[in-house]
Amino acid sequence: MDSDFWHRKWQANEIGFHNEEVNPLLLAHFAELSLSPGSRVFVPLCGKTRDIAWLLSRGYQVAGAELSELAVDQLFAELGVKPEIAGAGDVKHYSAPDLDIFVGDIFKLTRKALGSIDAVFDRAALVALPEKMRTRYTSHIVDITCAAPQLLLTFEYDQAAMAGPPFSVCDDEVQRHYKDSYRITAVASVDVAGGLKGKCAAKETAWLLKRSERQLS
Prior knowledge:
Blueprint lengths: L2 H9 L12 H6 L10 E5 L5 H8 L3 E6 L2 H11 L4 E5 L2 E6 L2 E5 L7 H4 L4 E4 L8 H14 L5 E8 L13 H8 L3 E10 L10 E10 L1 H4 L1
Parallel strand pairs: 1-2, 1-6, 2-5, 6-7
Antiparallel strand pairs: 3-4, 4-5, 7-9, 8-9
């Protein structure tokens, strides 16, 4: 899968992956990150998710990364905010009070450009990437956020029954990617109502990733 896939999806408005409501697992488990008011939360591959408006309404600062500039334009329009736009190395930086969205290839987003991050909400990033890209992605996120704690959402289903995205990411794979940096706890696992895309049975799991003793030392 390459960037053209996602650009085509947004240009054709084929965005069935976009939820019109705030993610219920975010509502149920975000507090378990134990963040102070004003903390800065990173939402990778954010699209125009409603979750950003919810985080802002709760007094958090939000940073996001998104490949599609069209998606980001729609995000700011729906928030009713006019962004300032500037370059940030190999990506564009859309900014408004308490909000920074970096537009372009997430692998070109640097730790310096992103700035300090207190937590990550990975709602649709890891599962959006094919298996061969996920190791690179997880390593990059740990690096640019300095292993900030995460609330991570994954799907698990019979990959032979449906082609991703979203892709199936099993529990063992989550451990493999993150065990060196985090203490990993599954805080919820729910059946996807009606099946994933209405095609196959699936479960969605919320993971709490806290810095390991190695990272804290």
